[in-house]
Write a structure and sequence with these properties.
This protein is an alpha/beta fold. It has helices at about 5-10, 55-60, 90-105, 115-130, 145-150, 170-180, 195-200, 200-210, 230-235, 285-300, 310-315, 340-355, 375-385, 400-410, 425-435, 450-455, and strands at about 5, 25-30, 30, 40-45, 65-70, 85, 105-110, 135, 160-165, 185, 220-225, 240-245, 255-260, 265-270, 275-280, 325, 330-335, 360-365, 395, 415-420, 440-445. It is built from 16 helices and 21 strands. α4 (about 115-130) packs across α10. The longest helix has 16 residues, at about 285-300.
Amino acid sequence: MIRRSLKRVHEMAGGLNVLENFQDAEICGVSIDSRNIEKNNLFIPLNGENVNGHQYVEGAIKNGAAASLWEKGVPNPPVGLPLIIVEDALAALQQLAKEYRSELSLKVVGVTGSNGKTTTKDMTASLLQTRYKVHKTSGNFNNHIGLPLTILSMGEDTEAAVLEMGMSARGEIKLLSEIARPDVAVITNIGESHLLDLGSREEIANAKLEILSGLSEDGVLIYHGDEPLLRDRIKAEFPGVRVISFGRSENNDMFPITITQEKDSTSFTLNSNPGKVMTIPVLGNHNVLNAMASMLAAKEAGVSEASMQSGMDEIRLTNMRMEMVEGARGEKIINDAYNASPTSMKAAIELMEGMSGFRKKILVLGDMLELGEQEGDYHQKIGEQISAEKIDQVYTFGPLAKKISDGALTVFSKENVFAFQDKTELIEELKKHTDTNDLILVKASRGMKLEQVVSALQ
């Protein structure tokens, strides 16, 4: 974590006041939660919709914080306490992280995309760990608050960082990239997530390409080359940027020759070394794409090809992302309940359709959120595209997912399609139809909390 004198932190954060008695105090890390202060933290009093963080400043210092930020426009700063006066606490946090990043000698991989960015982040970190001391984004700390906090939590001995960059509006990836200054930028794909906010896939592509804003002068962009919204724009508008593409088609710099699904892993060979079989401990053809992006990023950072498999063997993915668990009756459950979009939903269903050796294959699908005006059509098409020859039953939960059921009824008999608005009723019905050696996919947007279905089956 950041360790600097209060005087230096004052300079880095753009402090407006004159420090008098506390200049030599040591700052060790930062916190935005006064309840979880660690000794000598800098407290960042952020303002939310219902809470003004400044009311917790005195308590944070009492609990061990060495100092706190205080916004210039907030009246009655407490007298006699170590405060850094700033125009805006959030902007000061971001500025502090940007300055700290500039003082560290390390390789930075920035990862964004509509789908797969967390898995790609986890894979990349695992590969880099074969050579470097690595720090990566944890949980959902991938936004305008989380990324600065992630950077400030890195030790000065960190040799490589893998930073996930999320967004909900234009300009956010630009901000994150300029703070992180990646040496390698990865765009996993362009999907339909955030259509509600951005309106079109073209605008989503524009937003993701903002990652180039902070790319180092000799940096490289690794991108999904099967996506024309990326490929064509990059060629036309960023001719000076070094690029490497990955994808399923042979037009890419890296593409798969073979892909084999196992019970709990995926094996593949690549055009770069057709005789070498790679294995990842996660399911899905789409995760081969994530693995390729990770391998290209790791190679750019100096990881040898010989080390790649050992890195893949140690992958620890964030929970609820294609996570294979076992039910109480011996069912195999793929828990992919963290998020969902049409692109990732199709990929997960494609995986299920391609797997064999199970008594029954069952889909449990919930609403895909934030898809804008065409949300009903997206759900309907998902249902229509499910193969009744390869999937036995479809269960849906939520008002939007009802459209998936409607679409599925065009290809399934009605006794194999179940639509629910009550999660308890869904679970009770599902338990009536599941047994040993069934394969169940559970997938929805995070807000649907379908991990509760997984827990109930366990």
